[in-house]
Design brief:
14 helices, alpha/beta, Aldehyde Dehydrogenase, Chain A, domain 1, globular, 475 residues, 39% helix, binds nicotinamide-adenine-dinucleotide, seven-stranded mixed sheet, six-stranded mixed sheet, Aldehyde Dehydrogenase, Chain A, domain 2, 2 domains
Length: 475
């Protein structure tokens, strides 16, 4: 396969002023699959200038025209879903089925926001005193800087690019260093669909921080949308404060998965397998802490152990494998270290707990005897490790579930009425009741507490890139 591995500035694929490159590695075998152009700070500023120059005409382009360009991008990526998925697998390592799922989810954002582009709301009414008419319109916020992580290299990019373009903003995308090829493929699809030069730019600065800071301090940049760790999100919020740049943040998670006493155990196990193992556990939405009622804990643990011991682990490119590689050896070693710490803090390994000798693989793992408050329950695991904590009192399970700085997503399995009332008491932006997958372009995705600010997807996603303007008219 040939990859696009250059910067995209003002409608051109360019190698950057220094012509230096960094290696993109297939984590399943450690081989280099591409060398990607490094963007200098000047390249990054050139991308901002290009986005700024394109803003006036793009924001004045009729919504229907912008909508059709997004729809064409949807058609291109849908027709090429297998290639799209293969690029994701090669640079990220995930199982092919996970990559196909991501490709479809990512592509859907172009269709959804093609539909939203022509439905931006407004308001017109007489003021209560009758002295004027109140007109409320929405205008594109301006140039948007979009920063994405490696775990969903396609979807995290399209979930930002599609609403930004639908709103009339121009963008600079900064993908993660581990996974830039998927982003380049998306940008090329937009170019092939006919999106004009300067509207979508892509840069990959090394090191990242100083170049991003330069861009964030450019007066044309009015929006930052970041998906990644809470730690980096905090740094960016501080930097955005200097020029009061609008910030949307999709940050880390530490999702509780609560199995209530009345739960259907088979449904809970099937849901747990998906909530834990989708994307190899490298998901902000991955279930991190399993609070299982003591009446079901032993059955739940043995069923999870049986299922996960049979999981096929190997290169994602081989479609029969259910669990691919982690994105890098260092990510794998972080997970191995967390499991070692959990054992030192009193947990027992039921299955797994082992790394491969070659490639960045870590076996599906089940831990029991985990105590709430130990390291594995306070850290985002980001790998295929199921940590089971027994409880006896539902109020106590809710207290433990909420005992975290994060609040992205939570899962509850149980009798519907009880599960719904527990869902209402959980401090999370999203709660899955008796199901394991929530992400949907039509639903608001986002977190409470230190899991983020703002929402992506749904009819709200486009509002993150629009500013309300009130015009009072004396008619
Ligand atoms: P990360 O925070 O290390 O990196 C994310 C992006 O930020 C990358 O592009 C990286 O190059 C860039 N970056 C790093 N340092 C920077 C700096 N100083 N200034 C500007 N940019 C910088 O996260 P990651 O390891 O790539 O991804 C995993 C994290 O992402 C997890 O915490 C996960 O929960 C989170 N995540 C959240 C969501 C969500 O929607 N809430 C979705 C996916 C991933």
């Amino acid at each position: 396969m040939t990859y696009i591995a250059d910067l995209h500035i003002n409608g051109q694929w360019v190698s950057g002023e220094t012509e230096e490159r960094f290696a993109v590695i297939d984590p399943a075998n450690g081989e280099q699959i591409a060398s990607f152009a490094i963007a200098s700070e000047d390249d990054c500023l050139a991308a901002v200038e290009a986005a700024s120059a394109a803003l006036a005409s793009w924001s004045a382009t009729p919504p229907r025209v912008r909508s059709e360009l997004l729809r064409r991008t949807f058609d291109i990526l849908k027709a090429e879903r297998e290639t799209f998925a293969e690029i994701i697998v090669r640079e990220n390592g995930k199982a092919f089925s996970d990559a196909l799922g991501e490709a479809d989810y990512a592509t859907e954002f172009f269709r959804w926001f093609a539909e939203e582009a022509v439905r931006v709301p407004g308001d017109f009414r007489l003021s209560p005193s009758g002295d004027k008419h109140i007109v409320v319109t929405h205008q594109p916020i301006g140039v948007a800087l979009l920063i994405t992580p490696w775990n969903f290299p396609a979807a995290m990019a399209t979930r930002k690019i599609a609403p930004a373009l639908a709103a009339g903003c121009t963008v600079i995308l900064k993908p993660a260093r581990e996974t830039p090829l998927t982003s380049a493929y998306v940008v090329e699809a937009l170019r092939r669909a006919g999106v004009p030069a300067g509207v979508v730019n892509l840069v990959t600065p090394v090191p990242t921080g100083p170049a991003i800071a330069k861009m964030l301090h450019h007066p044309a940049v009015r929006k930052i949308s970041f998906t990644g760790s809470t730690e980096v999100g905090r740094v960016l919020l501080h930097e955005a404060a200097d020029n009061v740049v609008s910030a949307s943040m999709e940050l880390g998670g530490n999702a509780p998965f609560i199995v209530l006493p009345g739960a259907d155990i088979n449904a809970a196990v099937q849901g747990a397998l998906i909530a834990k193992m989708r994307n190899g556990g490298s998901a902000c939405t991955a279930a991190n802490r399993f609070y299982v009622h003591s009446s079901l804990a032993s059955d739940f643990t043995s069923a999870m152990a049986k299922e996960l011991a049979a999981f096929r682990v190997g290169p994602g490119i081989d479609r029969s494998n259910q669990l691919g590689a982690m994105v890098s050896l260092s990510e794998r070693d972080k997970v191995a270290q967390l499991v070692e710490t959990a054992v030192a803090e009193g947990a027992s390994v039921v299955v797994g707990g082992t790394s491969s000798s070659q490639g960045a693989f870590y076996d599906a793992t089940v831990l029991t005897g985990v105590e709430h408050g130990t390291t594995i329950t306070t850290t985002e695991i980001f790998g295929p490790v199921t940590a089971i904590i027994e409880y006896t009192d539902v109020d106590e399970a809710i207290r433990m579930a909420n005992d975290t700085i994060y609040g992205l997503i939570a899962y509850v399995y149980g009798e519907t009425g009880q599960a719904f009332s527990v869902a209402q008491r959980l401090e999370a932006g999203m709660v899955a009741v008796n199901r394991a997958v929530l992400s949907d372009p039509a639903a608001p995705f986002g977190g409470m507490k230190q899991s983020g600010l703002g929402r992506e997807g749904s009819s709200e996603g486009i509002l993150e890139y629009l500013e309300e303007k009130y015009i009072g008219i004396d008619l």
